[in-house]
Specification:
homodimer; alpha/beta; Aldehyde Dehydrogenase, Chain A, domain 1; Aldehyde Dehydrogenase, Chain A, domain 2; 2 domains; five-stranded mixed β-sheet; about 20% strand
């Protein structure tokens, strides 16, 4: 069932000379299937097909695109247990997680299907003509959102389904009419191929143009570089490390024609625990955060890697409780020897920073490729003066900073890099006394949470998953929720265009019955003409 | 009344050592006021004030911001004739143009005032909690657009009012709550100072924080570079040349924290004249286009610099007619000796390209600093094989390309760089036979026009002023119309936030009565809780 080949449009292909295998971190053994890395010829062919497909795909109706997206969801469901088994064998993640992530992926696909079936997402806007206007007549102008062109999506190591092959980036791009070329993640190439096969089946069943989707295997960085630099590629989606995301962003910005790269990158997700919360609910929060820090072995971009509090007995107790709670949790398997290697290196580097004290770690022997959780603590002054302490350690690691006072807490927040999330733990009446802290935190993050944990990203219209750099390369967009489509579209105006040749979204009679902004009024009505 | 000083927040300042004067191209003489270029200290101070002001300004209500914007409009009106005289003395443009542009600038300010007074522009989106959801409860998430932070706006040489000091970029940024630092254009520093004085007066009258606006004089590139590289600057708006815009974009992309630059740059605005239009209306279009090409001495970003037709008698007659019509028009003054110098150089460079034939030019003696209009023509093959012919000549210059056939016309369109506009001149029944041409043109432009001219950009919600690179650095935004605010905002989510501490836009009771997306329904109603 898994061939190890690339999908170049609808065809399986393996003419390249570089091969690789995936790895099972639970068994500590390579998996058996041999994957063929996409060659230059295959990359070129995939892009050419995508560009040709775009000319047709950009004009395909919302109803047909919704059929395509729903059929992808159906075909992913039809993969059944094979998909779950492959996922687990390539990630070391438990079956429940695989099933949950599949559910989320399918939910995303169906959400975008509903969005484009309804059709109002194009933000149609119509300003009718006024030929009697003085001193010059007013022309008829009509605007809607149109797709950018072929989009490249990079699979994410920690979300083989929801942020990879048919994940949020791909679903959003296909929904708006952009063909997608996926650079499959080498750690879960089998999961990728299975999902790609579902997309290709769906494309064939719903008569989408060949090239609307391709899936390219790669073990190194060359395939990604070739894709991002190609003049026919018009946008890039990426979820991963700051180093990787920034490299792609730089490459795209330096092209003769720069293209947008939406990279959702590292984040330490600062959590501010206010004095009354440590005092009254310190124990409770310690338990909850021990769970959040170790969830998925800390391999989430929203993992709480930094906890900021104000020095005192309350915070001291909180650190003690958190340290006691976290060692009660059984370590779990990490995604890959590379990931655990990087975790160990970065953790060790952090632990050698002057002034950092480790308050909890797992001492006992654990299975190979399992991640040992760690809690550390440091003084506010030390943290402020050493930006090495501000960096993310991807894995089950967190650091509690003991600030001298509120002013120092505010200073630390204002000096943090951009983050996906910021959390405030406070007693109900306490928050209103910390408006400066909230304001400073808002400047640094995309989402702010009250009395909760940052892990767990709800897929809903009001979600922002993104934030000031380096949380993402462009804080003006979210990677999660229906508004994530805005990364892949541009507004386009028709001036004085004949009604019968306008797209349905902009015709006088409003055949799609979508909501439009007509002469500055939002309405589903047809225009009073023709 | 004009001091030659910078506005560093509310204070006039001139501690720098570099001075310069503006120039009157009509009299061919320098104007008398001496301008003081902003020093490093003044730039730093302006940015610091902007960052401080942002902490207050970001939370100021829409009603107060609308009062500020309307007051700016009032104060600009109150400048009266002094502004018009200064404008004319610094640009060589006629009084009517100055008055028209002032009207447009005031209209823009009042449009943004209305937008933020009403308040729904924040795109409030609320997903309420569902504590009973299985397997995990759903949290309450609420999203709205928030300002990015201090924005730098570069004044444009060809629009001293509408795209400069209090122009569209500034008005949009102030509307959403971003302080603005203007790098004033050296050619119209006096007009800039007058408008800046109006903004400062309005800021003081409406109690806006000091630093919400600064105006920096500059004669070279250093002030702009310092601004774009400064870590506290969060976005940049620019209208001008490809070289200038790209340099700023590169600088911003290479910062440790990259920031968005919206640069609206060159465009040749291709016009496609279809066979029946040349045959039946060639004479009419020739007259209209002679006017469009020479309007404002061709100094518009939407100037039609390229006309594409299919070889034949119709096109030959059109070229003849256009050439005859254009020489009937009296040349007008260009903005500055530098601009006319560049025009002459680029025109001459173009005219030495192999295969390019000049069919019309002004031979007679004309006034110093006036621009001689030129029509040229070239074969389709020649144009395809020489990208030097694709470049913009900023001024009253246009080139007619004689394509072999429809296929070549399509190929040429697909090989053009990105453009602000594309125009199709056709007889009514003709257009539907050229869907491939329309489709190819759509891929290259931000706005497509039927039987009209690209010059004249209506300020309305449905307008797109922008387009694929290099028309703009990011085709996902427009520089004109109310949606231009989207360049300066980012979405921001509150999770499980206490209702009384939410901004009014997101409170249960919807005190502002704005339109919101609540549990996937657009509504102005309050939430059924609390």
């Amino acid at each position: 069932m898994i061939t190890g080949k690339n999908y170049i449009g609808n065809l399986l292909s393996s003419i390249g000379k570089v091969n690789f295998k995936t790895f099972n971190p639970q068994t500590n053994l390579e998996n058996t299937v041999v994957y063929s890395e996409a060659s230059t010829i295959e990359i070129e062919k995939a892009i050419e097909l995508a560009e040709e497909a775009f000319q047709e795909f950009k004009n395909i109706s919302g109803i047909r695109k919704s059929e395509f997206l729903n059929e992808i969801a159906n075909e992913i469901e039809a993969l059944g247990n094979k998909l779950i088994e492959t996922y687990c064998s390539e990630t070391g993640l438990p079956q429940d997680r695989a099933i949950g992530e599949r559910g989320r992926t399918i939910f995303q696909l169906r959400s975008f299907a509903n969005l484009v079936k309804e059709g109002s997402w194009v933000e149609a806007s119509i300003d009718t003509a006024d030929l009697n206007r003085q001193p010059i007549p007013k022309v008829d102008i009509r605007k809607m959102l149109v797709p950018l062109g072929p989009v490249v999506v990079f699979g994410a190591s920690n979300f083989p389904l929801a942020y990879s092959t048919a994940g949020g980036d791909t679903a959003a791009a296909l929904a708006v009419g952009c063909p997608v070329i996926v650079k499959s993640h080498p750690m879960h190439a089998g999961t990728g191929e299975l999902v790609a096969s579902a997309i290709i089946k769906a494309a064939e069943k719903t008569n989408m143009p060949n090239g609307v989707f391709s899936n390219l295997n790669s073990s190194g960085i060359e395939v990604g570089i070739t894709l991002v630099k190609h003049p026919k590629v018009k946008a890039v989606g990426f979820t991963g490390s700051i180093r990787g995301g920034r490299a792609l962003y730089d490459m795209a910005a330096q092209r003769p024609e720069p293209i947008p790269v939406f990279a959702e990158m590292g984040s330490v997700n600062p959590v501010i625990i206010l004095p009354n919360a440590t005092k009254n609910k310190g124990m409770e929060w310690a338990k909850i955060y021990a769970g959040s820090i170790t969830m998925g072995s800390g391999q989430f971009c929203t993992n709480p890697g930094l906890i900021l509090g104000i020095k005192g007995d309350g915070l001291t107790h909180f650190i003690k409780n958190l340290s006691e709670e976290i060692v009660k949790i059984e370590p779990t398997c990490m995604l890959h020897p590379n990931i655990i290697g990087a975790y160990e290196t970065n953790k060790a580097k952090m632990q050698t920073q002057k002034g950092l004290q480790t308050t909890a770690t797992i001492e006992k022997e654990i299975l190979k490729n399992y991640g040992r959780q760690v809690i550390t603590t440091v003084e506010g002054d030390t943290f402020l003066n050493n930006t090495a302490l501000h960096q993310e350690v991807f894995g089950p690691f967190s650091m509690v900073v003991q600030c001298e006072n509120t002013e120092q807490l505010e200073e630390i927040i204002s000096k943090l890099e951009g983050q996906l999330t910021g959390t405030i733990l406070a007693e109900n009446d306490e928050l209103k006394n910390y408006t400066q802290i909230v304001s400073a935190l808002q400047n640094r993050v995309g989402r702010i949470i009250f009395n909760g944990v940052p892990t767990g990203v709800e897929v809903c219209p009001a979600m922002v998953h993104g934030g000031p750099y380096p949380a993402s390369t462009d804080s003006r967009f979210t990677a999660v929720g229906i508004n994530s489509i805005k990364r892949w579209v541009r507004p386009f105006s028709y001036q004085s265009w004949p009604n019968e040749l306008l797209p349905d979204e902009l015709k006088n009679e409003n055949p799609l019955r979508i909501s439009r902004f007509v002469d500055s009024v939002q309405t589903q009505k047809a225009l009073n003409k023709s």
